[in-house]
């Protein structure tokens, strides 16, 4: 089996784009909560993607106690946040704790990119989610609830360059848009796409209808590469399937 990739389903391509303001479905289809889109286990995996609820990471207490104590050391948190040998999502949690303590890094670093596309199918239950992290970890959740996972511990060589380009483009976007300071939104409405950037300990986002996909000057290159990355994951998955 190909190193670094756990094939749970052959993914389908996502069509994506970037817009700056959230919008609702033009067809009037309701926004469906994530608990109605995926089963319980997949909902937990989905929620873990955004690194904005440290309680979901309680299983990591013994490994990273500084994240969970009431009054953590700023120095220890900063050291953890800047440690590129640690899983990216742990680094994001460290940055979030630092933000709570009013400690802010000097530079913006995009540590993760998440694209959600809610297709017009199954009465608004067509959510595909693709997440890419700076350590090479990739998570894809198909609207059916099935998944494909690439682990950064044993990276797939073919995916290293696309991930690098995606993060570079995302860093350019982060320089011109600001953080989302409100509570994280529910999944996008049917026919809409959302791009979420995990920047240090902040969430940046853009969203809009898929009819204008790839037309946004800021987001088109990033979205194109995210789409191409998913196609590569799909191809790698199909190559690992046994012949019929």
Describe the structure.
With 244 residues, the chain is an alpha+beta fold. It has a domain at 5-39 and 108-240. Helix content is 30%, strand content 18%. It contains six helices and seven strands. It has helices at residues 34-37, 40-48, 74-81, 88-100, 157-174, 220-240, and strands spanning 5-7, 110-119, 126-133, 138-141, 147-150, 192-199, 202-209. A seven-stranded antiparallel beta sheet has the order 1-5-4-3-2-6-7, with helices on both faces. The chain is globular and about 50 Å long. Residues 5-27 have low confidence and may be disordered.
What brief labels describe this structure?
244 residues; alpha+beta; seven-stranded antiparallel β-sheet; globular
Number of strands: 7
Percent helix, as a range, is 25-40%
What's the oligomerization state?
Answer: single chain
- What is Rg? 18 Å
Total of DSSP H or I helical runs spanning 4+ residues: 6
Described by strand count, sense and barrel closure, the largest sheet is: 7 strands, antiparallel
Low-confidence stretches are 5-27
User: Strand order across the biggest sheet?
Assistant: 1-5-4-3-2-6-7
What is the end-to-end distance? Answer: 17 Å
Going by helix content, strand content and strand pairing, the class is alpha+beta
Series of secondary-structure elements, N-terminal to C-terminal: EHHHHEEEEHEEH
